Amino acid sequence: MAGEIRTRNRILHILQLFDGRGAWSVEEIAGEMDVSVSSAYRDVQELVHADFLTPVVGARYVLGPTFAHFDLLMRQGDPLLKVAEPHMRRLVAATTPSSATVLTRSYQDKVMCVHQEIGDPAARIGRYERGATMPMFRGATSKVILAHQSRRTLERMYLANEEQVRAVSHWQSLKDLCRELDAIREAGVAVSDSEITPGTIGIAAPILLEKRVVAGLSLIVRADQCRLEPFRAAVIDAAQQISRKLAEVDGAWVART
C-alpha cells in the first residue's frame, strides 16, 4: 500500500495517520508508509514548519495549532452555524434540560457533529462535540441525512458497507434500506431509540437549501424525559426555520455530495 503512495500525496497521508493515533515518531511514519526514514523526516519537518505538526517529548509528533486556527476560520465563515446556533439553543429550552441539540453534516461514509448545544451537562446523554463522527447507518441523526441522498449514492454506500449494515440494523437488503428511508423522507423526521447512546431517544430533521440536504438537526433526550409528539414537532419546526433563514443568507453555499 504505502509503496504506491505518490510523493506529492505523502504529506496528506501523514496527516491521515493521526486519525487513528495521537502521536507518531518519524520511524513509525516511515514504516507505515514504506518510505525511507530520511524521506519521512523531510516531510515531517515541512509539516512542523507550517505548524501542522508539533514535536513532543519522546521524539514523537502530534497535530499542531494550525488545525485549531483553521477550525476557527471554518466556524467564523460557516453561515449554517451562524443561523442554526440560536435555534438550537431555543430548541433545548423548549423541550427539556435533559437534552442536547446536535448539528451534523455528512463526512465520507459517516456523519460528523459540527455543533452542539447542551441543556444540563449532568444529564450525561452522550458526547456529540464538534468533530465527533457517527456511523452513517445508525441513529436518527444519520438516517435523516441518508434519506435525502440519491438512489445512486445509497446503492454505492450500501454495497461498500453491506456487512456492517446487516450487523447493526434490521436491513437485509438495499430494498429494505430504501423503504425505511423513503418513509423518513416523507415524514420529514427520523426517530431512533438507544441506537447510539443507551437510554436516549434521537429525533432528527433535515436542513435543506435549494432542495438539497446540507445538514441534519437532532434532539438527543433521555428516554424517561421524552415527550415524543411535541418534541418531534419542535425539531421539525426548528429545522424548517433554519432552512428558511439559511436561504435568506447572501452567499450561503451547498456542499457537493
Automatic annotation (TrEMBL):
The keyword Coiled coil does not apply. It comes from Bordetella genomosp. 10. The lineage of its organism: Bacteria, Pseudomonadati, Pseudomonadota, Betaproteobacteria, Burkholderiales. GO terms for molecular function: DNA binding; DNA-binding transcription factor activity. Pfam families: HTH_20, IclR_C. InterPro entries: GAF-like_dom_sf, HTH_MetabolicPath_Reg, Tscrpt_reg_IclR_C, Tscrpt_reg_IclR_N, WH-like_DNA-bd_sf, WH_DNA-bd_sf. Keywords: DNA-binding, Transcription, Transcription regulation. This is IclR-ED domain-containing protein. The keyword DNA-binding applies. SMART domains: HTH_ICLR. GO terms for biological process: negative regulation of DNA-templated transcription. Residues 59-248 form the IclR-ED domain. It comes from the Bacteria.
